[in-house]
């Protein structure tokens, strides 16, 4: 079962399961997901992970053996203004999901966590041993979600792993695309499509070109990692409690703008604005542990990421 499987990332995970011949069922309340993102052959149960009875029935009726848990409220900035909603969706919802899984004897779960659990780390390269220090209710809720899995593992033998990742971009098919109103790629592409000039916030950071450096990973690569983790748990394999899905080097905002101009063929010079409060200069993670245990690789270049996102945007 893929919770949040009608969303941008979740629908790619469902597609990745389909490519290896593993059937899925999607549970999604469609608050930010799209019915059209779910393939016709995949059952879609419309509802919330807060509805324990519905979750339990779905697990039983579809003979579910494992869960990939992506459902949640994911906007870090908005979570500051809506902490109670964030905790209800991401913490209480995860607790209800785990309760339903325990009732049905489903013992395997892959949790979609976040690099927001690290806050603003004071290291050049984040590893799984880097201390967590979330700076938003969203980041805190994801860390608490990891704790819930850990504690349920101790108490009831739950087999689990959590995947922490940063900026997910691109599309595996033009049918699926990022509809977030807050993410950099859709914001830039929407501006270009509308004839507006994209903007860089902050050009005086202590980075090679003065703009923020982040991890950007293609959604198809991310989806493959979720499938690899789920299959390992289902096959009885052992995984670490947490993995970073990182690039190891990162990409700057200006490099993204250059790639956007190069790939789209739209020549532009981005507007420059002051820094936004709270934006660290660099957050980049090592993906070495995930490469070792999950076969994690960055198979797509920056131009691949931009090209696939642009083609999906043009198709819609």
TrEMBL record:
Entry-linked InterPro entries: Epimerase_deHydtase, NAD(P)-bd_dom_sf, UDP_G4E
Annotated Gene Ontology MF terms?
UDP-glucose 4-epimerase activity
Write down the chemical reaction(s) this protein catalyses: UDP-alpha-D-glucose = UDP-alpha-D-galactose
What are the recorded Gene Ontology BP terms? galactose catabolic process via UDP-galactose, Leloir pathway
Q: Which cofactor does it need?
A: NAD(+)
Q: Which keywords annotate this record?
A: Carbohydrate metabolism, Isomerase, NAD
Pfam families this protein is in?
Epimerase
Instruction: State the protein's name.
Output: UDP-glucose 4-epimerase
Organism listed in the record: Cellulomonas marina
NCBIfam families in UniProt = galE
Under Enzyme Commission nomenclature, its number is 5.1.3.2
Q: Does the keyword Magnesium apply?
A: no
What broad class of enzyme is this? Answer: isomerase
The entry assigns this protein to a family as follows: Belongs to the NAD(P)-dependent epimerase/dehydratase family.
Pathway where it operates: Carbohydrate metabolism; galactose metabolism
Q: Which residues form the NAD-dependent epimerase/dehydratase domain?
A: 1-246
Its domain of life? Bacteria
Lineage, please?
Answer: Bacteria, Bacillati, Actinomycetota, Actinomycetes, Micrococcales
Q: Which Gene3D superfamilies match?
A: NAD(P)-binding Rossmann-like Domain, UDP-galactose 4-epimerase, domain 1
